[in-house]
Predict the structure.
Amino acid sequence: MPRILTGDTPTSAGLHLGHYVGSLENRLALQESYDCYFLIANVHAFTTMAEKPAEIRANTIAIVKDWLAVGLDPERSTFVLQSEIPAIAELTFLLAMLIPFNKVMRNPTLKTEIEAKGLGETYPFGFPMYAVGQCADILAFRPDLVPVGEDQEAHIELCRDVAMKFNQLYCHVNNRTLEADHVKAGGVFPIPRAKVGRVGRLVGLDGKNKMSKSLGNAIFLYDTEKDVEKKVSKIVTERPTTTSPLPEGNPLAQYIDVFLPSERAEEIKASYAGGKEVLDGHIKKEVAAAINTLLAPMRERRAKLDGPAGEEHVLNVIKQSINRANAVAEETLWMTKRAMGLGFVERRVGV
C-alpha cells in the first residue's frame, strides 16, 4: 500500500477540534487503504518547553489516548514515538546541509509561531532546527502523502524541496524527472504531497487565530458536554441587532458550516444573510449539541484509558510499534548514507 506519515507535537494535554477536522478524520479514513505512520513529535516539544519535561511526557501519553479514542488503530497503523527513533536525529543533521538558513527563517509557519507564542528573539537554536527536523520526521518513512492542516503546508513544501535536492545531488536524478518518478529514477525519497483536511484552518473561539491551547481558544476532544456548551456560548458574534448579518470570519459562521448538516447550515446562513430574526443563543446551543454528538463516543473510549491501567496500555501500544518504525527509518538512513558515500557499516536497532 502507499504510505502516509503525519503526527502531532505534545505541547498541550490533548488534541482539539482543529486537529480533528484538519487531520484526524483524514487519518481515520486513510488507515483503511494506506500504510500509516503516526508520529508523536515529543523531541520537537522541547523547542518551546525544554524546562517542562514532565509535562511533555504527560502530554505524549494524553495524545496517544486521544488517538485511540478517535479510532486510530495500532494494529493497522504504526504509532511512532520520535525520541525512540535514532535515525530521525541523524537524518536531521544530514538534511540540514541542504537547506539555506535564510530559507528556514522565511518559512511562514515558523514566523507565525514565533509571533503567536511571543518568543521574540528568545527562542533557542533548536526552534528553527524544528523545521529541518520535521523534514527528517517525514522523509525517514518515505511517505507518498502527508495529511496536514493548512498552516503546515509550508513545512511540506520545504520537505519536498529537500527530497528533490537530495535525489538530484546524491542519486543523480535528472532535474526534469517528474515528481512521481523520482524513486523509479533511482532517488532515495519519494516527493511527498500534502493532503489538507476537510477544514484547512479551524478558527478558534476568539475569532482571530487558529484554534490553539496556548491561546486559550480551543475546544478539546476530552471536554465535557458542559465545557463545550459553555465555550460555544461565549463566542462573540458582534451583531448590533437580531436581524443583522453574521460578520464574515466569525467563528460561529465556520462552526455552523463544519459541524451542522449541510442543509441545516444553509438554512441558518440564509436566515442571517436575509435579515431574518435569528437568536444567536439558540444557534450556539445547536452547534454545541452537534459538537457533543461528535465527541460523545470519543469521550467514552477515552474514559476507559484513564488511570494507571490506561497509561500502561498506552506505553504497550508505543512499544509494540517501535521495532516496526525503527526498521523503516534505519533502512532509510542506510539508503541515505550510501547515496552520500557514508555507507560503511549498516546498523541494526532493536528494542
Q: What stands out?
A: The chain has a mean pLDDT of 92. Strands lie at 3-8, 35-40, 77-81, 145-148, 193-196. The CA atoms of residues 173 and 284 lie 55 Å apart.
